[in-house]
Amino acid sequence: MKKLLTIAGYDPSSGAGITMDVEIFASFGFHGLSIPTSLVIQGPKGVNDIYPVPYPQFIQMVDVIDGLAIDGIKIGVLLNEAYGEIVWELLKRKDTFSVIDPVISAKNGMRLLSDRGIESMKTMLFPLADVVTPNIEEASILTGIEVRTIDHMKMAAVAIKEMGPKSIVIKGGHIDGDPVDLFFDGSEFYMNKKKRLDKAVHGTGCIFSSLMLSYAVAGLNTKEAFFETSQAMERLFQSCYRIDRDGYFYVSPLPLIGRSMPVKKPSDSVSSESI
Questions:
Q1: Phi, psi (5° rounding) for residue 5?
Q2: Cα–Cα 20 to 30 A to 234, which of 24, 138, 191, 193?
Q3: Angle of helix 55-66 relative to helix 81-94, nearest 10 degrees?
Q4: Residue pLDDT, tens place only, 82-141
Q5: How confident is the model at residue 270 (pLDDT cuts 50, 70, 90)?
């Protein structure tokens, strides 16, 4: 059985972070491995606080997992450059397909990555990544470009590509106009347009990146994995639910179990454009 590793935060409500990642991996028939960087105290009302996993114990967990053959790695909340350096060393040793979700802040604005952590992620981790998956807010911070339109997304994707990753996905759920996800492989842009959801869903960045990794490890190329992921997100949103009377909505990967993975042919919602 293939083994996928997530290194990210722990969410006690299981809507994001390592618990959600492992659920996504399991829905594909993969064995999920997880190393928490932090305890993110959050629920349907958002993040209240964040506590780092003690650094020595984080290193011990990495050492335990390092002895296993790993078929793919997803990186989420890193906290700071110290945790990022350990992850960088692991990625160099493993040389396996990797997806980085460059989490900087929670939905409610609480900071989850330090300024030095951002810089080390850009200079050390991005050059080792197969895919980097920022949303428009994260893309704006990473590049200094205020991302509000599709043209801005393209500019930011080019700027991030220059930082070293093989490909970039920018999630445009909050751009002006209809939401669109954009994929850039260094030569062409591909877009998947979507309908705007009138609900705030918890954990969307974690879910997207763990789906992207799972589709790639399942055998799709990176562009195909992008389209399947973007469309799978829409399927999951259709069955989102609340775990409390109010607050964020949650999703379950159950609708993914047992589904085949046909790659969508280009249609009105899919477009490409050369750089």
A1: -115, 135
A2: 138
A3: 10
A4: 999 999 999 999 989 999 999 998 877 788 999 999 999 999 999 999 999 999 999 999
A5: low
Residue 78 near residue 53, CB atoms below 8 Å: no
C-alpha closest to that of 211 among 195, 228, 223, 196: 228
Q: Residue 110: which of 47, 41, 42 has the closest Cα?
A: 47
pTM attached to this predicted model: 0.92
The closest of 134, 105, 116 to 47, measured between CA atoms, is 105
Q: Are 150 and 115 in contact (CB under 8 A)?
A: no
The domains found in the chain, sorted by start residue, are 3-274 (3.40.1190.20)
Using alpha carbons only, what angle is made at residue 21 by residues 203 and 241, rounded to the nearest 5 degrees?
A: 45
Q: Find, among 209, 192, 191, 201, the residue nearest to 135 by Cα.
A: 209
